[in-house]
Amino acid sequence: METVGILCASDTELAPFLKMMDVCRTTEKAMLHFYEGRLRQIPAVAVYSGVCRVNAAIAAELLVEVFGVGTVVNAGTAGGIDPEARLFDTVIAEHAVYHDVAKDVLTEFHPWMPSPDFSSGGKLLSAARRYAETAAYPILFGTIATGERFVENRDRERIRQRFAPLAVDMETAGAAHVCYVNRVPFVAVRSITDTGEDSGTEAFERNCERASEIAAEVTAGLLQAWAGTQ
Q1: What three-state secondary structure class fits 99?
Q2: How confident is the model at residue 230 (pLDDT cuts 50, 70, 90)?
Q3: Backbone torsion region of residue 41, taken as left when φ is above 0, otherwise alpha when ψ lies between -120 and 50, otherwise beta
Q4: Residue 153 has what pLDDT?
Q5: Can you tell me whether residue 203 is helix, strand or coil?
Q6: What global pTM score does this model have?
Q7: What is the spatial distance between Cα 166 and Cα 196, in angstroms, rounded to a whole number?
Q8: Helices (H), ranges, the chain
Q9: Beta strands in 54-105 (DSSP E)
Q10: What distance in Å separates the CA atoms of residue 140 and residue 120, rounded to the nearest whole number?
Q11: Lowest mean pLDDT among 10-24, 33-47, 54-68, 198-212
């Protein structure tokens, strides 16, 4: 069975995975710590990258190039944009986009994409849909939009009108971008910490730990469903 890379933005988001894993080795690369072992019998390498898409891209490239993972899951938390995405719901990305990058950057220049959005891996997404049918947590499927700042209420409607995402974060599209150019399957699993009704950094900080635990449980369930098809 191929090794799965688990990529989180923060130590809070990574912590539930380390509780699930049998870690056999820890390696430091590029000021990051990579935890190798098994996640519920699935070979895995887990890391927290730090916040922002460049940090996520660094970690994703190392997972692929140094640790040889065949699949990457970006797991953690996000802010809800669509009213359908409620507090502690989990969004699984069908697509990831940058909400602060001109749309022709990725289509007119490297990597010359047919459209400026990154699609999730087919088998991963299929496994996620199977898992969602019996999951203990509400799961939504849609778009996650990534940018380099925490989205405040004044930006929500603009982003929603242009990209129609369920959620926003600062890492998903960066990790998806790396996986796209490396031809490695990718999916993001993000649980909601803040919404239009319960917004701001205080809401994020208050809800981050619980949302991270949910994201980890959903990720583990998704991966077990996926492993059954390998």
Answers
A1: coil
A2: low
A3: left
A4: 62
A5: helix
A6: 0.94
A7: 12
A8: 11-20, 53-65, 105-108, 122-132, 153-163, 172-182, 201-227
A9: 71-80, 90-98
A10: 14
A11: 198-212
